[in-house]
Amino acid sequence: MGSFDWMSSSQYLAQIGHFLGGAIVVLVAGVYGGEQVMLWTLGIGLAVAAFKEFVFDVASWGEGDSWADSAMDFAFYAFGGVVGLALYAGAVAEHRLAI
Length: 99
Fold this sequence. Notes:
The chain contains three helices and no strands. By secondary structure, it is mostly helical. Helix 1 (10-33) runs antiparallel to helix 2 and helix 1 packs parallel to helix 3.
């Protein structure tokens, strides 16, 4: 397969999805709602992600994941959310400097 072997790993692609999901949701909330909405979105998003990963995904009636898998998934959601927050803060600071 050459240079695209990394794409055959479902775990790697899942972590990219978790990261981008967290980052994009927080960043869009900041762009359209401002800082207060973005912080609420980050908090609520982390609470929902924690419920999804540690209740639904770990349960036998859910996906049946291990705690380690769920912790890694949640960490990538959180990391994405923090990166989205940082991107927004950087863009706002750059805009204020340009004015």
